[in-house]
């Protein structure tokens, strides 16, 4: 099976017979015939139903609107002109402008390489393209979708609402956004760099300092131990550095208090002096930061520096320039094998100190014996007291029984006597 092309103007066909036609053709007896000129759609009899652009329908025919007109009601009333033409009194007039031919009706001459054109500017717009889309707005407005809308807050000039190019006073531009300057700053390049200050503030090293009272001046000096810190906006009496009794600024001392000495305009602390030496085992070292007591070598009692010992401490002896410890339990020695004096609780044995064996003295033994005798006596006395108490209790009970027995016998005898008398 082979597909064949339909006839001219035929959109669909069946076995060479047209069933529908293309634009500007009409179906008649299985064929597509061309519509009259400028017709968009027409009947089989050739009567226009719709017209192409640039023409209008009149008595079943399409009549041309006229030159450069794209839509009209009649040949004398154009409603839409071609590009670069404007409608004036129903006619299409070439819209060209230059420095001589000015635009009228408050229109703007849009520049274009293909030809200038007078366009109506959008609201708050100062420049537009040939299509009438704004490309530059008045201050505080930015371009968005060809129209002028307000810039972001604190922005004076912007390309778009989100892209500021110049901020209001007291704000600086950062990444297209206006950010507040520091306190007292009227104009700044960043949060830390002010270029102009507000009333009551003075610019000092890119910072606006608030003006304050004058505590000191050339005619009003500060008390001892303080200096006048002067700024264009304020002057105050500040304390000199530690140990300084007189200074011109915090880094320039001229006199020191007791216990400090002056070194290159700085007062350094003197922990030790000739009249105040260091403790045993240390020496006085003078430094730029002050005199200080430095420890001698280990075991050294007297030294002039950290590497030379003049006298070893107790329990040590001099050996090759260092102080070594004496032997065990030794208080004073010539070397590690020859002790002069032993520590308490140790005794000398062939130049060495040995720990004494603990022996019990006679007094200690006598004390222990007396203690044992007293303990035995106390135990015996306690036993004797307990036995005596027991016997006393038994005797008391037996006596009470004898008395009761005698009382009973006496009562019996009395009863017998009274019985005999009655008889």
Automatic annotation (TrEMBL):
Residues 5-33, 34-63, 150-179, 180-209, 239-268, 295-324 form the EGF-like domain. The keyword Transmembrane applies. Gene3D superfamilies: Hormone Receptor, Insulin-like Growth Factor Receptor 1, Chain A, domain 2. The keyword Transmembrane helix applies. The chain crosses the membrane at residues 365-388. InterPro entries: EGF, Furin_repeat, Growth_fac_rcpt_cys_sf, TKL_Ser/Thr_kinase. Keywords: Membrane, Transmembrane, Transmembrane helix. This is Cysteine-rich membrane protein 2.
């Amino acid at each position: 099976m082979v597909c064949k092309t339909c006839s001219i103007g035929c959109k669909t066909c069946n076995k060479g017979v047209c069933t529908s036609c293309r634009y500007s053709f009409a179906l008649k007896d299985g064929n597509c015939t061309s519509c009259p000129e400028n017709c968009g759609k027409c009947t089989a009899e050739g009567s226009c139903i719709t017209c192409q652009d640039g023409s209008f329908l009149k008595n079943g025919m399409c009549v041309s609107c006229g030159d450069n007109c794209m839509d009209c009601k009649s040949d004398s009333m154009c409603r839409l002109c071609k590009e670069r033409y404007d409608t004036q009194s129903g006619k299409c007039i070439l819209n060209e402008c230059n420095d001589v031919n000015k635009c009228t009706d408050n229109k703007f001459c849009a520049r274009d390489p293909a030809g200038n054109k007078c366009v109506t500017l959008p609201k708050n717009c100062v420049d537009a393209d040939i299509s009438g889309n704004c490309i530059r707005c008045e201050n505080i407005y930015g371009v968005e979708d060809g129209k002028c809308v307000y810039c972001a807050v604190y922005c004076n000039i912007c390309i778009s609402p989100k892209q500021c190019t110049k901020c209001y006073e007291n704000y600086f531009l950062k990444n297209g956004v206006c950010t507040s300057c520091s306190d007292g700053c009227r104009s700044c390049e960043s949060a830390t760099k002010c270029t102009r200050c507000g009333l009551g503030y003075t610019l000092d090293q890119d910072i606006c300092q608030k003006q304050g009272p004058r505590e000191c001046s050339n005619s009003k000096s500060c008390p001892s131990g303080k200096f006048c810190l002067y700024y264009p906006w304020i002057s105050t009496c500040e304390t000199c550095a530690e140990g300084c009794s007189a200074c011109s600024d915090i880094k320039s001392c001229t006199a020191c208090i007791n216990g400090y000495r002056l070194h290159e305009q700085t007062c350094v602390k003197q922990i030790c002096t000739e009249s105040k030496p260091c403790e045993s085992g240390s020496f006085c070292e003078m430094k730029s930061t002050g005199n200080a007591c430095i420890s001698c070598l280990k075991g050294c009692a007297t030294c002039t520096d950290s590497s030379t010992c003049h006298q070893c401490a107790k329990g040590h002896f001099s050996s090759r320039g260092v102080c070594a410890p004496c032997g065990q339990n030794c208080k004073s020695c010539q070397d590690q094998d020859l002790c002069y004096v032993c520590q308490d609780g140790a005794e000398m044995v062939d130049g060495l100190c040995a720990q004494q064996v603990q022996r019990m003295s006679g007094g200690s033994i006598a004390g222990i014996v007396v203690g044992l005798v007293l303990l035995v006596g106390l135990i015996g006395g306690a036993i004797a007291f307990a036995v005596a108490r027991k016997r006393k209790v038994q005797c008391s009970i037996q006596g009470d029984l004898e008395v009761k027995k005698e009382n009973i016998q006496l009562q019996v005898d009395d009863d017998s006597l009274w019985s005999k008398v009655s008889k």
